Amino acid sequence: MLSEQTIKIVKSTAPILAERGVEITSYFYKSMFEAHPELLNIFNHANQKQGRQQTALANTVYAAATYIDQLEVLLPAVKQIAHKHRSLNVKKEHYPIVGEFLLKAIKDVLGAAATDEIINAWAEAYGVISQVFIDIEEEMYNQANWEGFKAFKVMKKEEESSLITSFYLQPSDGSNVPTYQPGQYITVRLSVEGEQYLLNRQYSLSDAPGNKYLRISVKKEGENPTTLGKVSNYLHDHIGEGDEIEVTAPAGDFVLDTTDAPLYLISGGVGITPMMSMLKRTADEQKDRPVTFIHAAKNSDVQAFNEEVDEALSKLSQARKYLIFENPSEADRENNRFDAEGFLDEEKLKALVTDTNASFYVCGPVAFMKNTIENLANIGVKEENIHFEFFGPSINLKEYQPA
After folding, report:
1. pTM (2 decimals)?
2. In 111-194, which residue ranges form alpha helices assigned H by DSSP?
3. Residue 94 and residue 112 in one domain
4. Is 326 one of the annotated active-site residues of the chain?
5. Catalytic residue among 27, 137, 264, 361
6. Are 283 and 310 in contact (CB under 8 A)?
7. Is the domain of 115 the same as that of 160?
């Protein structure tokens, strides 16, 4: 338990952290990686370069300062982060390293304002906060199918659209394919030629559980793989059938509920991948559950899984599909391949949502999710009925402003 004096001091630093948090976390990562470059085998380098990891950590530290006397308020966010840590093989021995350099960053950036009293209070608080993460992650490690990374062989590689390709994976050692919940993800780790450190990326499992394989469906990101999309481009261009990649056991808390409530699966672009797992599981096990499948894409050329979606929906007694194309082709228009043009806005959602007490699952680009979540709230959907998945560092979608 933290002392009242420690709580008071930590809470008093919240305004400073709100103002200079990113400056502190940027300094933290720079100094930690200089001293411990081996940790670059764990972190997503793209998120570092884009500043997303620094912003996410700043938000987390600020939240910890604000709720240091009510840490239970942060548990949902802590569990989400802990899933990502477990999937990246973050271990308890990493936490003292993080604590050392986080305290150093606070002291060096704030200078004289970071008194010994403040640093000591934060050292005590960090010990409590880190132990919460360690305990939750230890439980997740104990529940996982295996610990760390395991070799899987690509048994099939299949193009789903001009941008998205699926990889069907089986354990190289011949062991059973792990069970998982619809909506979960795995971490893929690659050694890429020309890269000094290993590269990690998390991808949703895009098929229903219970098959003799794990399937991930990867969008080829960016026109220049040297600056963006190194892992996705490498998978598309260099990983073929028979090759091996390393993955961690399925993780994540963005999982399908098993109630009878009407289900809305809302996705943009490659955000369709966890929805495929949810849709196919529902079609197999809850055939009478009302399902509305809403997907936004640029056009049919980049849209994935259209026939697979139709096949799953045909198994359901109450199912609807609604496609929104931002920039439909002439062929799309001639063949009536979409239901609306433009973006999924509040007006379209209002026309589609017939039950605001339903379960809503949202996945896609950050701006798409931010707008969709806000629009769902505007039409009367309660926050607890909206579930979403964002890949990358945890951020506050309500505060996100597209560049």
Report:
1. 0.91
2. 116-143
3. yes
4. no
5. 137
6. no
7. no
